[in-house]
Amino acid sequence: MIEWLFPMPVYCHKPTFDEIFLVQNEIKKNLPNIIENDNWDKPEGWEDEVETNIGHRWHSIADYGLTNLEQYIQKHTDIYRNELEPFMNNDIFLSHSWFNLNKAGHSQEWHAHTDSFISGVYYYQTNGQDGDLMFKNTNQFAQRGFFPTGKKVPEKVFYSPVEGMILLFPGWMDHRVQVNKTEDTRITVAFNWLTVNTLRKGLIKDERTNK
After folding, report:
1. pTM of the prediction?
2. Domain 11-199 carries which CATH code?
3. Are 22 and 75 in contact (CB under 8 A)?
4. Which residue, 115, 133, 202, 210, has most beta carbons within 10 Å?
């Protein structure tokens, strides 16, 4: 009998229309202001093209009052943590959130949120074909194809996007987004949960320049 050791938990919830009705309408109402007010660039040092406000604003959800989205995230984060019963079950808070605009030809390279307790993403707009989210096997030998890598032990796992879907995972897990080969723009909201920090709001430049 084969026993599977050290599984890695990724939480995935694909909602019904009713579950996300208020969340989707809330984002739709605020999105024009978010796009107009914020700066959109790829993260510093990245080669892959993507437009995000991660370098401009600490906490888009808090700053734009997206309370329905915050409650939706909170609900599923509580489910995730309660099912896992981790040793580190400290109080956590939603510390950082940002929007990603993945247009035609855009992608996101391999990265991790190493300062985050839990990371996640909410899919606001997607056609389902605009780039899967990929997770890399956390075992360094499986990443390189050593035994027993194969059908049962994959090097990578792919999640196809669905509107309203939420994914939660340990922030240190390596992940990337495939190239958007369609002409549509995928819009997501990514976020981090931290255990020790202070809630930040406003523009990042305000803190750096003291203006």
Report:
1. 0.90
2. 2.60.120.620
3. no
4. 133
